[in-house]
Each structure stands twice: as C-alpha cells, then as structure tokens.
Structures
1.
Amino acid sequence: MVWRVSQAMHDTLEDFKKYREKMNAKILASGNQQIQRFFNLDTRAYESGALSSKTKELLGLVASVVLRCDDCVTYHVIRCVEEGVASPEFYEALNVALVVGGSITIPHIRRAVERLEECEHLRKTS
Amino acid sequence: MVWRVSQAMHDTLEDFKKYREKMNAKILASGNQQIQRFFNLDTRAYESGALSSKTKELLGLVASVVLRCDDCVTYHVIRCVEEGVASPEFYEALNVALVVGGSITIPHIRRAVERLEECEHLRKTS
Amino acid sequence: MVWRVSQAMHDTLEDFKKYREKMNAKILASGNQQIQRFFNLDTRAYESGALSSKTKELLGLVASVVLRCDDCVTYHVIRCVEEGVASPEFYEALNVALVVGGSITIPHIRRAVERLEECEHLRKTS
Amino acid sequence: MVWRVSQAMHDTLEDFKKYREKMNAKILASGNQQIQRFFNLDTRAYESGALSSKTKELLGLVASVVLRCDDCVTYHVIRCVEEGVASPEFYEALNVALVVGGSITIPHIRRAVERLEECEHLRKTS
Amino acid sequence: MVWRVSQAMHDTLEDFKKYREKMNAKILASGNQQIQRFFNLDTRAYESGALSSKTKELLGLVASVVLRCDDCVTYHVIRCVEEGVASPEFYEALNVALVVGGSITIPHIRRAVERLEECEHLRKTS
Amino acid sequence: MVWRVSQAMHDTLEDFKKYREKMNAKILASGNQQIQRFFNLDTRAYESGALSSKTKELLGLVASVVLRCDDCVTYHVIRCVEEGVASPEFYEALNVALVVGGSITIPHIRRAVERLEECEHLRKTS
C-alpha cells in the first residue's frame, strides 16, 4: 500500500467533508478530553443566540479570511450558504476582510469564491 | 520642548480620537494619493449596503480581535456602540473571536471590554 | 473622575496581575457561559499530565513569543519561574522562539527578559 | 461533470496565471465596486514613482514571504524577474525576509526558489 | 519536458524529505553565506542543552502549529517521533497549541495527526 | 525602589535606543551563544551587498509594518532616515505595506509617521 496524505485543498467539498469528519473522529478518539471540549465550544460558538447563526457565520468567514486559512474559509462558505447568505452580502463581507487584511488575503478570496461557485453548482445539480 | 510620542494605548477615548485624527490628517497631507484612496475605501467598507453597518462593524471588531490590533479594536468598539450593539451581542462576537483566534486574543478582549465600559461611562456622564 | 485605561505594558507584575484579575472577573460576570468555559480550558491546558507543567509552561512561553503577545509572555514568564525554569533553560526556549519567529520577536524577547529580571528582583526582596 | 478545485500550489506558472485571471475576472464581475477599487490600488502600488518598480516588487516579495503567502510570493517572483532582479539580489531580499520572519518562512523560500527556477527555465526554452 | 512544482502537501514523508533536501541544497548553493548561517542556527536550536532535544522539538511543534505552517509541523512531527514523544504527550502539546492559537489551528492539527499516523505506519512496515 | 518596566512605546527615540542597547547587552550577556549569532545575522542582513543598505532598510521597514511590530518599525524608520530615504519614497513604501497588509497596519503607519517627524525634529534641533 502506498500512503498518500490529503492535499491542503481538497478536490471537492465532498472530499473536504469526508476528510474533516475522518480526522476529527481520530482526534476525538485520542482520549484527550480537553481537545474534545474545545471542539464542542467551537461548534457552539456559531449557534443562534443574541446574534443569529447567519451573522456568526459571517463573523467566522471574515475571521478565517483575515487569518488566511483555506479550510476554515471553505467550512464557513458552506455554512454561510446554508444560512442563506446572498451573493451581495457575501461579497460585502469579503470586502471587509480584504480591506482589513490587505491584498495578502486575495488568494484566499479567490478560493472562497471558487468554493461558493461549487456550492451553487451542487445546489443546481442535486 | 521635549518630544514625547503617544503611547500605544491612549489614556482616554478622547485622546485616541484626537491622535487618530491628527495623524490621519498628516498622512493624508503627505500627497500620496493612493494612501488617500485606501483610507477612503476603509471608511466605505463599513457603510450600510446588503449588510447593515451594525453587522459590518461586528465583522470589523472580530477581524481586529483575531488580528490583535488594540487601536482597531478600540475603533470598532466605539462604532459598535454607536450602531446599538447590545452587551450580549458584543460578548457573543468576542466569543467567536476567542474561539477562532485562541487565548492569545484574551489580552485584547480585556482591553476591548475596558473600552466598552468607557463608552458606557461616557454615555452616562454626558 | 478622569477615566484612564491601563497601558498595554503594566508598570509592575503586581499591576499586571491586578488588571488581569479585575478584567477576567468582569468578562466572566458578563454571563457568556462559553467564554467562561474557554477560560477554564485555558487554565487546564497547563496542568500536569503526560507532560509536566514546567514543559507546558515553556510551550506556552514559546507560543506567546512567536505570536508576539506581551501580556501572554509576561504571564508565562511568571509561571515558568514558579515551575523552576532555570535561566539557561529560559534562554534556550527563547532561542527556539527567536529562530522560528525571526527578529520580529526580539522586542518581545527584550520585554520577556525584563519581566524575568523583575521576577528575580521580587524573589530577592520578598 | 466532476467539480475539482485548483490546488493551492499550481503545477505551472501558466496554470497560476490562468487561474488568477479567471478568478479575478469573476470577482470583478460580482458587481462589488469597492473590491474593484482595491484591486486597482493593488496594481498601482507597484508602479514606478519615487521608488522604482524593481524596488517595489522586492518590497512586495519580502512582505509576501514574511506573511507566508505562496501565491503572492509566486506573483512577485515573476514580477521581480521581469524587472531584472538578479540572482544575488533575489537571495539578499530573501535573507532579509528569513531574518525578520524566521525559520517559519523557509518552506515558502523553498517554493520561491522553485518558482525562480521555473522562470529561468521558461526564459531558456521560449 | 513539462515543469511541475511540488504541491504544498507532499504525498508521503519520503517525498517531503526529498524535496526539503533538494531545495535546501539549492538554496545553500546560491552562495548567500548568511542564509547558510541561518540554516545552521536553525539546526542547532533543537540540539540537546539545558533543555532536552525532546522538549525542544515539542517547542518547535507548538510554535509551528500556532504559526500554522504545514511543512514545519510535518518536520517537527517526524522529529518528535524520533525523540520518543508518546501519543498522550503529543496530544497534550497539540492541545496547548489549540488553546493558544484557537480553532484556526485545527486544519493543521488534522494534518499533524495524519503525519503522525504515517510515521507509525512507516515504523510498522519497515 | 519601585520597579517599573518600560512601556511598549518609548517616549523618545533616545529612550528607545537606550532601552534597546541595555536589554540587548543583557541578552548577549546571558551566555546563549546562538542568540548572539542570531543578533549578528540580524545586523548583517542590512549591510550593503548586491542590494544597497537603503533598499534593504526599506525591505526591513515594510516587513515590520506588515508584521505590525512598533519597535521594529521605529528602528527601520531611524535607519531609513540615516540612509537618506526621502519623504515620497517613505510614503510609497508605506503604501505597499498598507495595500499588502491592509487597514490593520494603519495604527502602525501612524506611529511610523510620528517617529519620522521625530527624526526630522531631531535633525533640525541638533
């Protein structure tokens, strides 16, 4: 058997989701209870409260773009689409990230837009 | 005359605002037109559009906390208060920043909360 | 009453500790339960387990230096001293941070060494 | 049709350029005027003025290496070669980035050098 | 001949090591003596001294995770395994990185765990 | 005796220089030879070679602004002035940093301009 790691950019959203689930399961199976609790806090941070889930997902998206993490951007793009973020809202949020974080965020914005297109493609073909 | 620069943390919001205005004026007077245009884009990024100013200021606040810039945090705290962000909304946004950005953001969150208190103090005494 | 915020660098370790406690208490009193849980995870991450508290505090110190957070560096310098980190160990850890994080960490290393001196000063005079 | 996103590292400079153009066109077609203006400012920042384009591209290269963005590094390597940056100049600029940004920049420096080789390869075979 | 650059995530540890050696050799052959000296300092920072190599590799791992550099994480995972870091120690170090650096480190932690598995796979099959 | 640490922003360039020298001397006196060698590489990185000192100081300035380190910015502003960087060159370099690094760099640009003014003030009064 030849071992091959996953690429940083997963070919499809489906691949991304599978990899994310598989590795999260392994990390949670490690027996480190504090990591489990952190993962739980991570999930709960985006639940509807005083702010809506939609607003929180936009916060997560902008934080991910300015910190320049492609996987985190992918995750929040998916979630934003699920929460009904419309295209002009999406671009206005990306513009805030671009102005705050500078041109260094542009490659991540390109990939965010590519993922957004993939979400729309999946919606049309499913 | 003894020259003294401003400290990174201004004593009061009033000091912060004065320093910000004074230095921005000097930068804009430098004759570099592109910096002027950037400053203009920066202001316009938070104007109401498909997303409300309130939502955009929350995006700016979270981006500033995860990138750990005290002056930017101060600015967006002031603007969030002006846009009517309520205390529980404020803390939920800070929680998203804390979870995304980790404990390294905590000193900035402490100073954000201190600035929030100062805004409330100013409102009561004015 | 004139409102004055704390400076980013507290004059003494005593000031740092008081400010940290005061603001943490305010944040925890805000009623945001998830922030409380995060603070709890933060404390527990450095407790002795498979790795000793001393090793974990060194990990926290190096992470704080490469991420360049003075308050976090101050906190872990205090804790490293309490865990018995000796001066050559301290400098070897700082050297790892310096090599990984580059010359941009040097101002933070200067302040880390100043805090270390203050810890030693307090030990001698108490 | 199977959807496949582009990898973070494009196989060839040709692929990089095509992807960059394709996605920039989509972003600019989104109708968000402020993003358009930012892209315009980004292009103009490297035009010859008081400083030469060559110096500005070196500034862009070093900024990209210390902020560790492979696509940005690729772009500025191409532009530096076009502006006539010689190999010893290139390595001296990379050395400044390495010293400022630390060993964490080394993987990006490896890829910068690989891209530089590709530019030289293209020049010889074209 | 079609030129193809290496992907940011190398398929196997073997690929990673070969690429790292090949590019380091090219960089060192460039004749820039200061880069050579930096590479030398980088190697020596993890040698046993007042702190053990094992502790220093854990410091390098945590610094790499909070600064979010996959290649650096891969390198320190390999070295941690060679220094005999046990699985619970590994996860406790990752937990410190996760708490300090936040959820933005999670994609890098997933890849760190995947590399750790590959190291274990190699040990069993060699 | 009351112990007081230095503030992150030194009141004057004279204070900055004294503090920098005092703490560097202490760090170098610690006996950690590798830190000494790093400091030496740091100094040498800006010496004239294939690129002029002036260009290298501009590289150092832009790297410091995008990484947002006030002390590093102060140091390179002083050095840029010594190398004869003229005001329009200075602002064009800051504009590159602003575009690459985004609005999050603005507070550091304000302080860079304040330091530049202080350098000019010193030149006139000395």
2.
Amino acid sequence: MSFANTPPPPYYAVIFTSQRTEKDSKGYKRTAELMVELASKQTGFLGVESSRDHDGLGITVSYWDSLESIKQWKEHMAHQKAKEKGKKDWYSAYITRICKVDRDYHSI
Amino acid sequence: MSFANTPPPPYYAVIFTSQRTEKDSKGYKRTAELMVELASKQTGFLGVESSRDHDGLGITVSYWDSLESIKQWKEHMAHQKAKEKGKKDWYSAYITRICKVDRDYHSI
C-alpha cells in the first residue's frame, strides 16, 4: 500500500489503530484486502493508507468526502461482518477516530 | 509504541504518512525517538501512535489539544532541524494532514 491521492481539503478521515492477535493470519489478510476493495467502490471514498509493524500494531487511515459516506460504509453489511470477526478474533484492542482534515502538506 | 490515551473529543490530530529511504537507519531511529520524547513535553500534547511496515511505509499520528499547540510544535527548533534532515535523507515522500477529531470509539 502507498499514499492516498486525496483532493485539496476539507475532507474526512477515519483513523483506525489496532493491535493484531496472532490468530487466523490467512483469514485476516483475505478479509483486509476484500475490505479495501469494497471500500474503494463506495460513494465518497477518496483513498486509504495502511501500515502494520512487526509487533502487530497497525494504523489504517481511510479518507472520505463526507460524514455521510463514512456512515454508509460503517453500515455496509460485509464491513459489519468483518468488524464482528475483528472484535472476536483478529484484534486484542483498537480505537477508531473520525476526523475532519482541514489542511495538508505534500512532498510528492 | 502503543495506543494514545486521548481524552474525549474534540481534539486535534496530525497524520504523518511517510516512505523511508534506506539511508541512515541509526540516525533516523535516534532522532525519531528524540522527537517523540520532545513532543511529549510540549504544551497540549495528548499522545502519539506510530507504525512502519517492512516496506518502509509509516504512519505516525500525534494528538494535540489545539491548533495552537500543533503550531508551536511545528515551529520548535529541534523539530524543524529534524524535518529538514527528513526531507533531505530519510523520506522519499511524505504527506502531513492536520485534522480535528470529532468522535472516537475505544475497545480498550
């Protein structure tokens, strides 16, 4: 994964910080890829950036045009199912933060 | 590094997404640690979360009580020096985004 090619602000960001358990690597990877694919087809999706270190701490930031688009993705059935599985098996802890991006600076 | 123990929203976030070069691992690591230590002593600092994957793509999110605190940290002399070095040697590309966090959900 790489940089999200977001438009000039304002736009919205969902910061998802999570600690992976060691359970079910294959199922997790498959679902994570599917969620990126599905999210990118949603109305208002602007991009996603993701990183997970060798200790299993990850930060994924998805970017959206509006709070309404974020809400619709939150309520998407496949996404809800993935989140349930995440809570149960894949993550020992996580925090989701909903933000409005007011400014950005690019070097690329 | 782990989760930032942020207070109830609203608060502010600086999302820094970067691609590391392969240059100067030691110098980079030392400065990155020093910047976290220095930032955490600044007025208005609420916490930081950071992850870098095996391909060198990293996301660091620092949390602050106000835009004024973010501005002061931006102008901090040691931070400015580190950023210059970052642009020159450590990062092939980066994006900084300044956000207001309006909502969050914790599982921890």
